[in-house]
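Practice record 12: protein with flavin mononucleotide.
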Amino acid sequence: MTNLAIDLMGLTLKNPVLGASGTYGSGFEFLPYYDVSLMGGIIGKGTTLRAKVGNPPGRLFETSSGLLNCIGLQNGGVDYFLREILPEVRKIDTHFFANISGSTIEEYGILAEKLDVDGVSGLEVNISCPNVKAGGLAFGTIPEDALAVTKEVKRKTSKKVMVKLSPNVTSIVEIAQAVEEGGADGISLINTLLGMAIDVEKQEPVLSNIFGGLSGPAVKPIGLRMVYEVYEAVSIPIVGLGGIVSVQDALEYILAGATAIQLGTANLINPLAGSVMIQGLEHYLVEHQIDDIRTLIGKAHHKEEV
Ligand SMILES: Cc1cc2nc3c(=O)[nH]c(=O)nc-3n(C[C@H](O)[C@H](O)[C@H](O)COP(=O)(O)O)c2cc1C
């Protein structure tokens, strides 16, 4: 018998495979493809205090091994989520983490409080959003801001809190340590990397927002490096993501120190990605006669013991 179950921030997950925010709907949208309750967990689409229509078209663009997006956090707002979406989420037998985005520290707190309800296992706090009171710099780029958001969210919820880091920083370790100090129960990384594309016929940027977030296989080596670095610097669990499409990718992240992984762009390439990943990890364990996936977490750091 092999064990795929893991402990994440005190929660038991059936396996370490989660659907990433913005790429997995609220989970139930994937029910036509496979039984979503097989997943270790679901991270909801970014939820804001008020409804957002997002950016105008020119919001997605495929690049070499990657995808640029500037959706602009389109969502119905937290009250719509609680009223219309959460009842559907509750029917799925897996952990649901609400992903929250604020434009002020107070907004993060209000969101955390409103989402402190049954059917939500925890929060994933997206700190890649601009702080409108600090000249629009993202919370996740300034250690003091990242710490303040984490503290405020923790103060307003009884749920587990993982903070999702932005890779658009000089020192990911500094931000990771700040959110740990702020009381985060876990860390997920990475969000998308800022990029752009230009249409040479129109001679103008492709995306309506000019810049967008790069995801997909192109970003995997960066995400992996950051998980490896953060693992050595904090003692809270890490959920790794960024460009994971194959079993090999997921294992690399786990060996670098991730307790669990998220599939993002992979869901847009193959809607069955979650189910295929869970089977693939199981296969790998059986083939390599490994009893428990947890024995692999961070193993790439201890070469001398192998
Ligand atoms: C279309 C799209 C929408 C996204 N929306 C969100 C979001 O609402 N909140 C968030 O924290 N991350 C969002 N992300 C980022 C992903 O959750 C993930 O961090 C990123 O895409 C890297 O993982 P991947 O390479 O596996 O896709 C979005 C990504 C994509 C491609």
